[in-house]
C-alpha cells in the first residue's frame, strides 16, 4: 500500500435525499473496488496502490453522472509514498471505540 486518498463527491442535484442517494452509490462503488476504506461524515478514505486509487477516483465521478447528476465536484486528498504510507488504523485506530 503506497497511497491513501480521501474523496468527497458533491453531485449537483437538488435536495438532501437525492444527494444521499448518489453518494450512497459512490460508496458502493468504493466498497466493490475491494480496497480498505472508512466512510466519514465529509469524505471517504481509501488505501491501496496509487494507480488503482486514481482509477477509483475517476470511477466515482462517472457513478455520479450515471446516477443522474448533470455534474459533480470532488475534493480529493492524496498521500503517496513509494515505500508505504501510514494505514488508516495507524492514523486513527486509537480514537476508534470498541463495538
How would you describe what is shown here?
By secondary structure, the protein is α+β, with helices and mostly antiparallel strands. It has a single domain, classed as Alpha-Beta Plaits, CATH 3.30.70. The chain has 3 helices and 4 strands, in the order E-H-E-E-H-E-H. It has a 4-stranded antiparallel sheet with strand order 2-3-1-4. Helix 1 packs antiparallel against helix 2 (50-66). It is globular and about 40 Å long. The two termini are 27 Å apart. The model has no long low-confidence stretch (mean pLDDT 95).
Number of distinct beta strands: 4
Looking at the structure, what is the overall shape?
A: globular
- Strand order, largest beta sheet: 2-3-1-4
Structural domains: how many: 1
The termini sit apart by: 27 Å
For the largest beta-sheet, the strand count, sense and barrel status come to: 4 strands, antiparallel
Stretches where pLDDT is under 50 for at least 5 consecutive residues are none
Q: What would you say the CATH architecture is?
A: 2-Layer Sandwich
Proportion of beta-strand residues:
25-35%
Radius of gyration, in Å, reads 14 Å
Per DSSP, the total helix count is: 3
Indicate the CATH topology: Alpha-Beta Plaits
Please identify the structural class as seen in this structure: alpha+beta
Average predicted local confidence, pLDDT: 95
Amino acid at each position: 500500500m503506497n497511497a491513501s486518498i480521501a474523496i468527497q463527491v458533491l453531485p449537483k442535484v437538488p435536495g438532501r435525499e437525492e444527494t444521499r442517494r448518489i453518494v450512497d452509490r459512490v460508496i458502493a462503488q468504493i466498497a466493490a473496488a475491494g480496497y480498505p476504506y472508512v466512510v466519514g461524515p465529509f469524505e471517504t478514505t481509501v488505501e491501496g496502490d496509487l494507480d488503482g486509487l486514481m482509477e477509483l477516483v475517476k470511477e466515482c465521478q462517472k457513478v455520479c453522472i450515471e446516477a443522474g447528476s448533470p455534474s459533480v465536484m470532488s475534493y480529493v486528498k492524496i498521500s503517496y509514498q513509494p515505500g508505504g504510507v501510514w494505514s488508516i488504523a495507524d492514523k486513527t485506530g486509537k480514537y476508534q471505540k470498541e463495538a
